[in-house]
Design a protein that fits this description.
The structure is a single chain. This protein has four helices and two strands, in the order ααβααβ. The protein has about 120 residues and is mainly α. The chain has a two-stranded antiparallel sheet with strand order 1-2. The N and C termini lie close together (about 10 Å).
Length: about 120
């Protein structure tokens, strides 16, 4: 079921959300200081492309908090807003609710991505 969900997700909205993460990663990698943040964007782009069967665990320390604050001001709010709006639109139909929930998962990740890890569910 996860494979089918990922295929439908990719065609409907995953492509655009994943590309937005990739674009943010490329823009962060323009500066040397932003390369670690850009690498994190690329890691989470794979989640945005295919989110079914994956969970996010949050944690981190002081450096994660500082990176999250910088991230939130520069890139987090636009990514989270786009994913949340997409989630609300998808939740308007019964069929779209599972996809909308995935959008909300990605919106939460877009607000505080540092210190988060992706785990694969079996």
């Amino acid at each position: 079921m996860g494979c089918l969900g990922n295929m439908i997700w990719f065609l409907c909205c995953g492509l655009w959300q994943g590309l937005s993460w990739v674009l943010c990663g490329v823009l962060w990698c323009v500066t040397i200081i932003g390369i670690p943040i850009g690498r994190q964007c690329f890691k989470f782009a794979s989640l945005a492309f295919f989110p079914f069967g994956k969970e996010i665990q949050y944690g981190g320390g002081t450096m994660s908090l500082l990176a999250n604050i910088l991230w939130l001001v520069i890139s987090g709010i636009p990514l989270a807003t786009g994913a949340a709006v997409n989630g609300v639109l998808l939740c308007c139909t019964i069929i779209g609710i599972p996809f909308g929930l995935q959008c909300f998962k990605i919106a939460k990740l877009a607000l505080m991505p540092f210190g988060a890890t992706i785990t694969y569910c079996q």
